[in-house]
Design a protein that fits this description.
The complex is a heterodimer of chains A (265) and B (428). By secondary structure, chain A is mostly helical. Chain A has one domain. Chain A is 77% helix and 0% strand. Chain A has helices spanning 2-12, 16-44, 52-74, 80-96, 111-146, 151-155, 159-192, 200-221, 227-250, 256-259. In chain A, helix 1 runs antiparallel to helix 4. Chain A is globular, with a radius of gyration of 19 Å. Chain B has 428 residues and is α/β, with parallel strands linked by helices. Chain B has three domains: 2-168, Beta Polymerase, domain 2 (2-Layer Sandwich), CATH 3.30.460; 172-314, Rossmann fold (3-Layer(aba) Sandwich); 348-423. Chain B has helices at residues 2-5, 22-28, 32-44, 69-83, 88-91, 101-111, 123-137, 143-162, 172-184, 199-210, 223-232, 243-246, 266-273, 307-345, 348-373, 379-405, 413-423, and strands spanning 9-16, 48-55, 59-66, 96-99, 192-196, 216-220, 236-239, 252-256, 281-285, 302-306. In chain B, the strands form two sheets. In chain B, strands 7-6-5-8-9-10 form a six-stranded parallel sheet. In chain B, strands 2-3-1-4 form a four-stranded antiparallel sheet, with helices on both faces. In chain B, strand 6, helix 11 and strand 7 (236-239) form a beta-alpha-beta unit. In chain B, helix 3 (32-44) packs across helix 4 (69-83) and helix 6 crosses helix 14. In chain B, 41% of the residues are buried. The chains are: A mainly alpha (265), B alpha/beta (428). At the A-B interface, helix 5 and helix 7 of A face helix 9 and helix 14 of B.
């Protein structure tokens, strides 16, 4: 349901009233998705991140949620053009994957874990938006610099707005990522008895964190903004994608069990 | 036939933003002083009877009335090349030449702003008026061009008031502001530096003030002028040498000076980027020749738009105005036909015929009236009265007709014809 909403929104975003329709469709999709996740949560008694299907579905849900928040805050209508297809894509992939839940693991029922997952997901969704905004920034900057005002010029918002939004996304994402890492540490301590276990996912999360920390640091000290910031946001998100998928498929570690397809961890 | 051959014809040659790049227009732009000098040269040329020269940053138009079109065009090209010290081959390809009705139509279209870079921008009419004023001062404009220019002003006003072409983006400066909006989103609190002065630049600053822009700095080579201008914008004047330092603080730079070198160089901007903490800076270069080094556009978060670039922004909104422009074209077409009628009548034979017809009509009417009261007259008497009246008309018209037909002072022929038509109100 969400995917249709997203797709319709994407397709018609060119026109103002259609953009509004798209927005309400995303909103509706988000609300349905929320009840669905809530229902699953109540029914199974644990957070629905057992397998890749659920994890992706969760990611789609958070991206949509974060998009709605930023839309409310910045009125950045055009961002839907990036978000809607992304959510759609995520949901389509999720729906193609087997959704059979496997036996609830006791380690999944912990308040720290829930906090860890939620914060990390919101953080990553924010970074996804930052990447989208960064991409739009580069497109708009290119049209202005090359002085060929074509299709995008009229439709994209001002550079300043894109830059501020991207910055806000990264600040929000960074805060959430930090909280996510901290809760993750606490959880790891309570389950495995140590904060840091050099698990590849942990290492890559750390790299991501450092990358965004560097970006924010540069912005605050020498005022990295505009083009460089946009490129960094895109690179950052690429690293996140790698952390999210690549590490699971290519490297082994204790996070793997959440994203493995069929066999239990 | 000799008479007809002496008739002055209208020829126009020029180049504009569509046919010539900024660099070439820069080379061929005339200051008022230069214009006066060229007009004087035209006056001394035997082939050019009347001349008006319009030079703006987007176009140079030379309007002439001549008996020998090809010779006049050759002469005008020669003058251009001499005055601007540029071989004719450099600009010949960019020139357009219009004759007769086409020249009239072109003039009407230019003044009505149908041919402008920003269709509907209002400044061109004023610029043509200035050019005409200069030509009348130098006495290079005669009967034909006087009539044409007066018609032109009339048509331009009509197009403006009867169509909506002036309603949208009114000028280059407006286009620049729209572009700034795409960079900054809002102008609130943004600092502006105005270098030089000029109608378009000041208009841009006015637009910005209406958009709640922050502080305004004015730099002028003559500090006193800068102070005056700054007062008008409630801003501060800085010295010309301070421009490089002020780049650190300002967000929008509007430049419009007569300088032949770059006023702001790439080096200067590069030096302040770090100190600006990478905040975007937007240069609007309204000057011809250019004031801002175009290379600055390649620096991060720096944007440079010169007059040609702004064209790109304008093309977007041009579609909306096409409908109104078509209305404007129709008004122009009508006016061209009207002018052609006047021009054709300016020939000797039609004028004499019209004069005769007018006299005959008056005589007929008066005879009829008089005879109505003189019922006792015989038919013979009546014929005698009519004969007498006709003879009087012939006698009265004899000398004027001879004068109009004479070949002697052909330079003034159109003048005599025009006065005759005016004296007897033949253009009703």
């Amino acid at each position: 349901m969400l995917s249709t909403a997203g797709y319709v929104a994407y397709l018609f975003l060119q026109k103002n009233y259609l953009q509004q329709t798209g927005f309400y469709l995303i909103l509706a999709g988000f609300l349905c998705h929320t009840t669905w996740i809530g229902y699953g949560f109540v029914q199974s008694g644990h957070f629905p991140i057992n397998n890749l299907h659920q994890t992706l579905s969760m990611a789609g849900w958070t991206i949509a949620g974060v998009f709605l928040i930023f839309h409310y805050r910045f009125h950045l209508k055009i961002l839907g053009i990036f978000t809607a297809p992304l959510v759609t894509l995520v949901m389509v992939i999720a729906s193609r994957l087997p959704s059979a839940p496997h036996t609830a693991d006791s380690i999944l029922n912990n308040i720290w874990l829930v906090a860890h997952v939620i914060t990390i997901f919101i953080g990553e969704a924010s970074f996804a938006l930052a990447c989208g905004v960064g991409f739009l920034y580069l497109v708009q900057e290119h049209t202005i610099k090359s002085k060929t005002h074509g299709f995008f010029f009229k439709r994209l918002p001002s550079l300043e707005l894109l830059d501020t939004t991207g910055y806000a996304c990264i600040v929000a994402g960074f805060t959430m990522l930090t909280l996510g890492l901290i809760t993750g540490f606490i959880y790891a301590k309570s389950v495995w008895g140590r904060f840091w276990s050099w698990d590849p996912k942990e290492v890559w999360s750390g790299i991501t964190w450092l990358l965004y920390a560097a970006l924010l640091h540069q912005r605050l000290t020498v005022g990295w903004r505009g083009r460089k910031a946009a490129i960094m946001a895109i690179i950052g998100f690429a690293v996140i994608l790698f952390t999210f998928f690549g590490v699971n498929f290519l490297l082994q570690g204790h996070h793997g069990e959440f994203t493995k397809l069929q066999m239990g961890g | 036939m000799r008479l007809l051959k002496n008739m002055l014809e209208i020829v126009l040659l020029g180049l504009n933003h569509k046919t010539a790049p900024v660099a070439l227009r820069e080379c061929l732009a005339f200051s008022p002083d230069e214009t006066s000098a060229v007009l004087k040269a035209f006056q001394e040329s035997p082939v050019i009877s009347e001349a008006v020269l319009v030079s703006t940053c987007n176009r140079v138009e030379i309007l002439m009335a001549t008996e020998d079109k090809s010779n006049a065009v050759r002469t005008a090209k020669m003058f251009l090349s001499e005055f601007k010290k540029l071989p004719a081959s450099e600009f010949e390809k960019s020139l357009y030449i219009h004759k007769g009705d086409d020249a009239v139509r072109h003039m009407f279209r230019v003044a009505s702003s149908l041919d402008s870079m920003v269709v509907g921008e209002p400044q061109i009419l004023g610029q043509i008026k200035e050019a005409y004023k200069l030509a009348t001062l130098k006495k290079t404009s005669g009967v034909i061009l006087n009539k044409l220019l007066h018609r032109t002003f009339f048509v331009a006003k009509r197009v403006r008031s009867e169509t909506g072409i002036g309603d949208h983006a009114v000028s280059i400066s407006y286009a620049a502001i729209e572009l700034g909006r795409k960079i900054f989103g809002t102008f609130e609190g943004k600092k502006v530096l105005l270098i030089g002065a000029g109608e378009m630049a000041e208009l841009a600053v006015d637009h910005l003030i209406r958009n709640k822009v922050g502080d305004i700095l004015v730099a002028n080579r003559t500090f006193e002028n800068g102070v005056k201008l700054a007062k008008r914008f409630k801003g501060n004047a800085i010295r010309f040498e301070e421009i490089a330092d002020s780049l650190e603080r300002v967000d929008i730079v509007i430049s419009s000076t007569g300088s032949t070198d770059y006023v702001v160089t790439r080096k200067q901007v590069k030096a302040v980027i770090r100190r600006r903490r990478n905040r975007p800076i937007f240069f609007i270069d309204i000057a011809v020749p250019r004031d801002i080094d175009p290379e600055i556009n390649r620096l991060t978060n720096s944007y440079v738009y010169d007059i040609d670039d702004l064209k790109g922004v304008i093309d977007g909104s041009i579609e909306n105005r096409n409908k109104e422009a078509i209305k404007g074209e129709r008004i122009v077409d009508e006016a061209v036909i009207g002018f052609r009628r006047w021009y054709d009548n300016l020939d000797v034979v039609p004028t004499i015929v019209a004069l005769r017809n007018k006299m005959d009509a008056i005589a007929q009417a008066e005879i009829k009236k008089t005879l109505l009261a003189l019922k006792h007259l015989s038919d013979e008497d009546r014929q005698a009265v009519t004969r007498m009246t006709n003879a009087m008309i012939n006698k009265i018209l004899h000398d004027p007709t001879l004068l109009l037909k004479s070949n002697g002072h052909h330079q003034n022929k159109s003048g005599y014809l025009d006065i005759t038509r005016k004296l007897f109100k033949l253009d009703e």
